[in-house]
Design brief:
Elements (H helix, E strand, L loop, with lengths): L1 H9 L5 H5 L7 E5 L3 E7 L8 E6 L2 E8 L18 E8 L10 E5 L2 E7 L16
Antiparallel strand pairs: 1-2, 2-7, 3-4, 4-5, 6-7
């Protein structure tokens, strides 16, 4: 009965489907600066080796896994609220990102990604055209 009640409450939250699905979905904040984009993702209990960052054009994909630290069987828990398992998040930006300039820092369970905007190339002039 408690489980049904809790699931009903979760459905009222905007991120409820992610919580009810298998695995888990880490919470994220994304904002833009003049130079690029900043993504901050809550990853408590996730080590640096358990996170993969992939940038392709204007899209960032984070994949990883959080493993339960306890070898106890789930039947022995009185309550389990922390989800574990694989996760994947994809973010689409308004401009392309320079994948070579991306920096990442994982500290105290918070992953911060700084993603510089890709430099736009100046349009090429046809040969023989005078720039004046």
């Amino acid at each position: 009965m408690n489980r049904l009640f809790e699931e009903a409450l979760l459905r009222t939250r905007p991120h409820a489907p992610a919580l009810l699905a298998s695995g888990w979905t880490p919470m994220a904040d994304v904002y833009e600066t003049a130079e690029g984009f900043v993504v901050q993702v809550e990853l408590p209990g996730v080590g640096e080796d358990d996170v993969e960052v992939h940038v392709d054009g204007d899209e960032l994909t984070l994949r990883g896994v959080r493993r339960m630290g306890s070898p106890m069987r789930p039947e022995s828990f009185h309550r389990m609220e922390r989800n574990d398992g694989a996760f994947s998040r994809t973010f689409k930006f308004t401009e392309d990102v320079d994948p070579g300039g991306v920096t990442a820092q994982l500290r105290d369970g918070l992953l911060r990604l700084d993603l510089p905007k890709a430099r736009r190339r100046a349009p090429r002039r046809p040969r023989g055209e005078d720039p004046a």
